[in-house]
Amino acid sequence: MNIQSVRGFKDWLPEDFIKYQYLINLARSILLTYNYKEIKIPILEKTELFVRSIGEFTDIVQKETYTFQDRNKEFVTLRPEATAGICRMIIEKGLFVNPKPLKFFTTGPMFRHERPQKGRLREFYQIDVELFGELNPYLEAETIYLAFEILKAPFNLKNYSEIYTLEINSLGCLKCRAEYKKELVKFLKENKDKLCHTCQERLEKNPLRVLDCKIKTCNDVIAKTPIITEYLCKECKIHFEKLKEIFNSIGIKYVENPRLVRGLDYYIRTIFEIKAKGLGAQDTVAAGGRYDYLLKELGGDYLPAIGFAIGVERWAISIFGDKKEKFLQELFPDIFLIVLEDELLIKGFQIAQFLRKYGLKCEINYEKKSLKAQLRNADKLLAKFVLILGEKEWKEKKALLKDMKKGVQEEIKFENLETLSYKIYNKIKNEL
Ligand SMILES: [Zn+2]
Ligand SMILES: [Zn+2]
After folding, report:
1. What average pLDDT does the segment 138-147 reach?
2. From the CA of 216, how far away is ligand 2's center (Å)?
3. Which stretch of 154-158, 175-179, 290-294, 305-309 has the lowest confidence by average pLDDT?
4. Which of 137, 223, 329, 330 is the most buried (most CB within 10 A)?
5. Host H or E run for residue 59
6. How far is CA 10 from CA 7, 16, 41, 119, 173, in A?
C-alpha cells in the first residue's frame, strides 16, 4: 500500500520552494528596514491559548484547529495563526519592560482544518508581523503601508493597485462595540428564522460572527444589518478619520467595508484585508488589525498592538500566476564535471570542491559512463557549462569547457590544478 500525504498538506518541490524562499527573503529585507526583529515561536501551543485569544465561539477554534491530547493527556493545538503565540511569548518572557515599540516578525507554517481549495491548504505558510507600543492611527497607516510594500516588492510592481485592493473597517472600542452589539442582536433576533442553524447559535454566543457567514440566506440578512461605523464613539471616530486622512495624503487607495469583521475576537478599532485578483473565493492575501487588549486578556499588561499576516501561497499565486522561468534558472547547476578516466576522478573531486568554495553550483558524476551519456545527462540537468577531463588532454595540461547554451567549447590550458580551477571559475563567472 502506498502511503500518501495528508489531505491539505503539500510537498514543496524545488521549483515551488524556490519561489517561497524568494518571497520570504524579500519580505525579510523590507521588514528589517522597518526595524522588525525576526523570531521563531513554537508550532504547538496549549489549546487554552487559542481559546482565550481567538475566541471560544469562533469558527477557527470550534471547527478548524488541529487539537488533540498529547501523551500526558494535555490538550495542545497546532497553531492556526501566530499572533497569540507571540503575545504568550511577550508575557512569558516579561518583555513589557523592554523599550517600546516591540516589533517582531516570524515566518512558518500554520494549520487549519478547512476544505482545501485553490489558495487554501490545511498547512499553509504565513509571514506574521506584530508591533506593540502605541495607540496611534499613524501606526496603522504605517503597518498597512508596510504590508503593501512587501506585497508589491517582487518585480517592483508599480501598478499594484491593479492587483491588490485594500479594505478597511473600524470595529470600535470595547465601549462602542458593546452598544453596536445590542443593536445587532436586536436586529438579528427579529430575523432569526431567516438565519442558518449555525448563525442562530452564534446569535446567542457571539453575534458578531454572524457577519462572517457565507450562506446565501444569511447574506441577505447581513446586507441589512446596522453597520458598526455608525455606532463608533467620538474617540474611535476621530481615530478612524485620521487613518483615512493619512491614506489620502500618501495616496493609498482603500475601500471602506463596514461589514468586514475578520474571524477573530481580539481585534478592536482598525482592521483590514488586502485582496488580490485572480484568486477566486480565497482572495485575501494579507489581513490584520489592532488588538490593544489581547495581552491584558492573556494575563499581561495593557499594551496597544497591531499586526498582520501575509499568506505566502496566495501571495505567490497573485504575483507569479504560472510564471516559473525566472526561478527555475536558479535551480540549474552552473557546471557539470565529466571525468572520463578513473585516475582523474580525484582531480575532478578537487576542482568541484574549489568551484563550490567560490560559490558555483557544481555537479559531478563518479560513475564510469561514456562521454555521450554524460553529456546527455548534463543536458537533462540543464547545466550551464560542462567541463570535460580526458586522459590525453590532461597529460597535455588541457581541459575542455563547453558552454551548453551557446553550444561552443574551448580548450583551457593550465599549469596545475589551481590555475585550472581559477580559469574555469573566471570564465563561468563572466558568462553568468
Ligand atoms: Zn469607541
Ligand atoms: Zn449563517
Report:
1. 96
2. 8
3. 154-158
4. 137
5. helix 59-59
6. 8, 11, 22, 12, 40
Q: What is the mean pLDDT of residues 244-251?
A: 96
Distance from the CA of 235 to the center of ligand 1, in angstroms? Answer: 6
- Let me know if 299 is exposed, middle or buried by CB neighbors in 10 A (0-12, 13-18, 19+): exposed
pTM of the model: 0.89
pLDDT value of residue 249: 96
User: The domain containing residue 253 runs over which residues?
Assistant: 14-173+233-320
pLDDT of residue 165: 95
Q: How far is the CA of 430 from the centre of ligand 1 (A)?
A: 63
Residue-wise DSSP of 70-136? -TTS-EEEE-S-SHHHHHHHHHHTTGGGSPSPEEEEEEEEEE-----BTTB-SEEEEEEEEEES---
Cell of 153: 516588492
Considering the domain architecture, whether residues 260 and 396 belong to the same structural domain is answered as no
324 pLDDT tier (thresholds 50, 70, 90)? low
Average pLDDT over residues 341-351: 95
Q: How far is CA 312 from CA 128, 208, 385, 393, in A?
A: 10, 28, 34, 51
Contact 86, 128 (CB under 8 A): yes
pLDDT, residue 212, reads: 81
Residue at 219 is within a domain: no
Among the bound ligands, the one closest to the CA of 215: 2
Q: How many domains does the chain have?
A: 2
- How far, in Å, CA of 283 to CA of 277, rounded? 7
Residues near ion ligand 2 (Cβ under 5 Å): 196, 199, 213, 215, 218
pLDDT at residue number 259? 87
Question: Are residue 46 and residue 110 in the same domain, yes or no?
Answer: yes
Are 21 and 167 contained in the same domain?
Answer: yes
Nearest to 77 by CA among 104, 57, 52: 52
Query: What confidence category does residue 331 fall into, taking pLDDT thresholds of 50, 70 and 90?
Result: confident
pLDDT tens profile 381-415: 999 999 999 999 999 999 999 999 999 999 999 99
Look at residue 348 and tell me if it is in a domain: yes
Q: Pull the grid cell for residue 89.
A: 511569548
